[in-house]
Design brief:
Layout: H1 10-14, H2 18-26, H3 31-45, E1 53-58, H4 65-70, E2 74-81, H5 84-95, H6 101-114, H7 124-131, E3 132-136, E4 147-153, H8 156-159, H9 163-175, E5 177-188, E6 193-196, E7 199-202, H10 208-216, E8 219-227, E9 241-248
Parallel strand pairs: 1-2, 1-4, 2-3, 4-5
Antiparallel strand pairs: 5-9, 6-7, 8-9
Helix pairs in contact: 3-6
Bound molecules: S-adenosylmethionine (SAM).
S-adenosylmethionine (SAM) binds near residues 138, 139, 154, 158 and 159.
Length: about 250
């Protein structure tokens, strides 16, 4: 029997404990998270476009920072998520009027990354609410060629640990943007699993080289950077990551 997430169906993902995940990974933001947020903002800032962007984040989970990163340049924000519990959590989180300190923290990182000259709101959650659509669906069923920029944080390697399925998931991610559109993603390195609320979720074990091969088929201008690689887990399943930017073919 495979230990892969290929075995986790929609019902299994519906039991994902969103609040436990949020508390474990984002209650106390790590400097690596801040770095990823900053690098994502810098990549979005660099996009050449004469109009506001349609942005999608794939496998958003219980995390608002992907939408914060795109917010300053976005006409629309789509959070595309498979797990029904995460979809419900995201919708409830966006309805809240009191902003969690973690969102205030990440929004400050975003504002600092964009720098002067941007008129950015004080309350990022209210601003995201205005532009966001939360869509439930699988990465394999993503609509094609609809967005200008797509982000994805720690998702495709959590969907499956079968290389061909991982490649297909990344191809679907890449094809969600128009040709030439911007792809920004972070992937766990040296990880085999992570634990949420006592349940183990397997992860595809990746290398920079394997990621390059996966994306070469569907993207150009691939740039990767390793972040925070350490010997021991910082959090469950996390010893470091690779940050990737590319342009969709
Ligand atoms: C490790 S979590 C990452 C969550 C979030 N992006 C973050 O940065 O913390 C993996 C995410 O992938 C989602 N996921 C699992 N299978 C999926 C699928 N087939 N399509 C899209 N997302 C999926 C899970 O529901 C979960 O939110």
């Amino acid at each position: 029997m495979s230990s892969g997430n290929a075995d986790l169906d929609e019902e299994a993902w519906a039991e994902f404990d969103s609040e436990a995940y949020f508390l474990h990974y984002y209650e106390d933001p790590h400097p690596d998270d801040d770095l990823v947020v900053r690098m994502t903002c810098e990549a979005i800032k660099r996009i050449e476009a004469d109009r506001p962007l349609d942005a999608i984040d794939v496998g958003t989970g219980p995390n608002l920072y992907p939408m914060f990163c795109a917010l300053p340049r976005a006409r629309s924000l789509t959070a595309f998520e498979y797990s029904r519990s995460n979809v419900a959590w995201l919708k409830a989180e966006l309805e809240k009027t009191e902003v969690r300190p973690q969102w205030t923290h990440f929004w400050k990182v975003v504002r600092d990354a964009y720098g002067p000259g941007w008129e950015l709101p004080d309350d990022p959650v209210a601003a995201v609410r205005e532009k966001a659509t939360i869509s439930q669906g699988s990465i394999y069923d993503l609509p094609e060629r609809q967005w200008d920029v797509a982000t994805m944080f720690f998702c495709a390697e959590a969907v499956t640990n079968v290389q061909a399925e991982f490649d297909r998931a990344c191809a679907c991610f890449a094809r969600a943007v128009r040709p030439g559109g911007t792809l920004i993603a972070a992937f766990l390195l040296k990880s085999e699993a992570y634990i949420v609320a006592g349940r183990q979720y397997p992860v595809m074990t990746l290398t920079v080289e394997s990621l390059f091969n996966t994306f070469s088929a569907v993207a150009t201008d691939i740039v990767t950077e390793k972040i925070g690689i350490v010997e021991h887990e910082v959090r469950s399943g996390y010893t470091g990551m690779v940050f990737l930017t590319a342009k969709a073919k």
